[in-house]
Design goal:
Blueprint lengths: L8 E4 L2 H8 L8 H4 L7 E4 L6 E2 L32 E6 L4 E6 L4 E2 L22
Antiparallel strand pairs: 1-2, 3-6, 4-5
Amino acid sequence: MSSNAVGMTMRDSSTGIMHAVEADIIYPEFYHEYGEFDSMEVTMGQFFLDNSHYDRTDQIMCAVDGNLKVALVPPVYRQEMQPGKTTTYHHEIKGHEMIVELDVNESPINLFKPDFDKFPSAKHIDHFY
């Protein structure tokens, strides 16, 4: 396999994948007092970059092989993240700028390389890697 990253990702959130691995999950004793396992998303590829976003449900992330880099932002900075804004990005394959309407839970700010000129509020966001 090449060590060069390519833009190929497989993402599956069907119930079939969840039921296939559900029996192999060992839950901590306290888990069912606080939550239930109701969905699963599997993402595979050499790299994957998702918009900054928040979820209303608790999440567990696991890297089976390789590295996983995540930026966590406390909810108090929700407004500074400017959720639901329109953003543009350069699409490498199509070779031009694309305009994207973000969902109300998505942010246009790239926390790993914030554009402080475009998003000055990002200077005030305290986030963790």
